[in-house]
Every structure is written in structure tokens, then in C-alpha cells.
Amino acid sequence: MSKDKVQIFDTTLRDGEQVPGCKLDTAQKLVIAERLELLGVDVIEAGFPISSPGDFKSVSEIAKLIKNDITICGLTRAVKKDIEVAADALKHAKYPRIHTGIGTSESHIKYKFNSNEDTIIEKAVAAAKYAKTFVEDVEFFCEDAGRTDNRFLARICEELIKVGVTVLNIPDTTGYCLPEEYGAKIKYLRENVKGIEKATLSCHCHNDLGLATANSIAGVVNGARQIECTINGIGERAGNTSLEEVVMVMRQHPSLGLDTGINSKLLFDTSKMVSEKMGMTVQPNKAIVGANAFAHSSGIHQDGVIKHRETYEIIDPADVGVDESSIILTARSGRAALAYRAKLVGYELTKVQLDSVYQEFLTYADSKKEVMDDDIHEIVAGTDIGIRKA
Ligand code: KIV
Ligand code: ZN
């Protein structure tokens, strides 16, 4: 079955870098941009050029560096000066995109702008038109779209399409939506915005309720064709949609009929690289790229995985660049795991030998969080029954 392509818009260097204490310099951003290119993302949001001279420089250098068929994008508010500065930063990009936008929810209109719907539409259209004078590819974000009334959202999207906006970004800025609600929002826009086929709908979901991945998938199932995401899901507050998660959800569920151009074998390495450069550790239980994502420590699971990996793993670790599943020895491990790990360090144990080693192991393991290879040698020696390496 041929699959519909979902574009991956990586915003690690813009929304991801908004994490407190995770500032990157231009050289580090260039290295990450090159890696994103290798990974196969479609769009790199390189920064917010007007925000600082450093961000301007980073966007500009990335625009010069990346020459494959990747769009380089710069963020702006719906403000003329922002747009001019972004256009300047992007002038060397082979495929430049200006990403402009404004808050559209009742709360943003009332409290942020002390304005009204008609004025917001006027400002949005003026910004989009102005951006179009610099670049063909203009993306518009309707900030807090997650909490924006669908009828108003449809109205503003329709006006933006009339002036040639190519991508309509529907951010769940506060991570508030439920997947059904976010999916229904995208469906509503597809069904109620005249000319919607001329633009790509984009999902930009935050993770305040842990629903960013589910919401983005609900969005593409309902017709969006771009996901905005970051490596390791980093970003403001609880973060953005995690790139590795949405990519692997589509890969592992071919029945969705959706896929991306991502080389998944680079996911683990890319995660490590971004984590190191940003000084931000990845939680061990993080899906796909966490240290424990392919580690098994309970006896029942270990026995299953040793007999047939797929009993407890839905992803082949090699598909995401992890060498192999690991069998972690703890006091919860069984004989199968111990025999397996002992064999890896050179002991081919008979059933009788294994019984003795296992008793020794249990006492040893109770005093340690994890039993390592060196400990296995000590445990075997401790049995005093003359076991030698094979
Ligand atoms: O979350 C958000 O709404 C954003 C926009 C600036 C796209 O990051
Ligand atoms: Zn965001």
C-alpha cells in the first residue's frame, strides 16, 4: 500500500532551544542542523531571527550551510520588522520559509492584544501578505489554536489561504487538547475552509498533559500533513511533540497509511547528540530513545525476550540505531537471564551449575541495584564448584 508522506518540521533549534539553560551557540546549532539533514527532516526551523543577534547569525549560517532539498524556516511575530529581519537571515537559503503568526484564542485576543477578532484577522492577513513579498513559502501559526473557537479558526485560515499562505500551523500551544478534540479540529478545518486543499495543515503540539504525540497523530490521521516536533521532545515547559515518537508510531502502524522520510536508524545517535549538546539528559524510560527503552529486567520478560524478542518488544532496536536489547541482571531476574549473560562473558553453564550459580546470584543481587559482567565472574568463583570459562 502506498503511503501518504507526512512532512517532518523540526523545531529543536527554535522551540526546543527555548528550554531554560539549554542555549546553543551557532557552531553547535550548525552541527545539529547537519545531523537533522542526515536524519531526513523536511523543514528545519533554525531560530527566531529578530530575537537576538546570535539567533540571526545561526539562522543565516544554517541557511548557507544546508543545501539539500530542505526548507529552512525562521520564526516571526506578525510584525513588519520581524518579517524583514527573518527574510534577511534566510536570504541564502535554497528553500526559505517565513513562519509568522498571531494568537487567535479568546484569551490571547482579549488579554495579550486587548483586541477583537476582526482586527486580529486584519493583522494576520497583513503579516502574511508582507511575508509573501519576500518568500513564496509562508507558514502562519494561529497561536493557541488548541483553545481557539473552530469557527473563528476556520475564518482566519480562509483569509490566509486567499493571500497565498502555504502552510497553516494549528498549535496546541498550551498542550490542552484531547486527541479526539485536536483531530476533530483538523477535520473541521478540512471540511469548512474554502480552498484548504491549497495549503498544508500542520500540527504543533505541546506536552503539558503528556498528549503531544497522541494529538499530533490524531492530527495527521484527520488530514494534517506536517508535524512540528523536536528531538527528545524538548521544548518549553513539558516540551514539544517528540520527533522519534511520531516517526515510529507511523512506522509501526502501517495501517495508518502514513510515513515520513526519516532514516530511523539515526534516531538513537541523534537523541544522544542533542542531549549532550544541550546538557539535557534523556529520561531513562523515554519511549524509543531512553536508556531503558530496550532493556528488560524482570524474569518473566527476560525469559520471553531470550526465547523470541517480539514477545516483549514491538520495535527492533536496530531500526532506531540501538545495537541490541539488553538483559539487565537484578534480584528480579530468573535463571534464563543469568545463563544468557553468563554465556556472554564466557560461561556455558550446565543445569546443575546454573542452579548453584543462581543461588549465589540471588544473595549477591539483593545487595546491588544491578549485577554487572565483573560481578558475574565473582559470583561464579563464589560457588566454589570449579566452573571454568568455555
Ligand atoms: O507553541 C506555539 O504556539 C509556538 C508558535 C510560535 C508556533 O511555538
Ligand atoms: Zn510551540
Describe what you observe in this structure.
The protein is an alpha/beta fold and 390 residues long. The protein has 14 helices and twelve strands. Helix 2 links the parallel strand 3 and strand 4. Helix 5 runs parallel beside helix 6, helix 8 packs across helix 9 and helix 13 packs across helix 14. The longest helix has 16 residues. The two termini are 49 Å apart. It binds 3-methyl-2-oxobutanoic acid (KIV) and zinc ion. 3-methyl-2-oxobutanoic acid binds next to strand 6 and strand 7.
SS field, number of helical segments: 14
Beta-strand fraction estimate: 5-15%
Record the strand order, biggest sheet.
Answer: 2-3-4-5-6-7-8-9
User: Biggest sheet, open or closed, and with what strands and sense?
Assistant: 8 strands, parallel, barrel
What is the alpha-carbon Rg in Å?
25 Å
> In the residues, how many domains can be counted?
2
The CATH topology name of the largest domain reads TIM Barrel
Low-confidence stretches: none
Q: What is the tally of beta strands?
A: 12
CATH class of the largest domain: Alpha Beta
Chain-averaged pLDDT: 96
Structural class: alpha/beta
Helix residue percentage: 40-55%
The first-to-last residue Cα distance is 49 Å
Identify the CATH homologous superfamily of the largest domain: Aldolase class I
Bound molecules: 3-methyl-2-oxobutanoic acid, zinc ion
The secondary-structure element order is EEHEHEHEHHEHEHEHEHEHEHEHHH
Q: Which CATH-level-2 architecture of the largest domain?
A: Alpha-Beta Barrel
Q: Shape, please? A: elongated
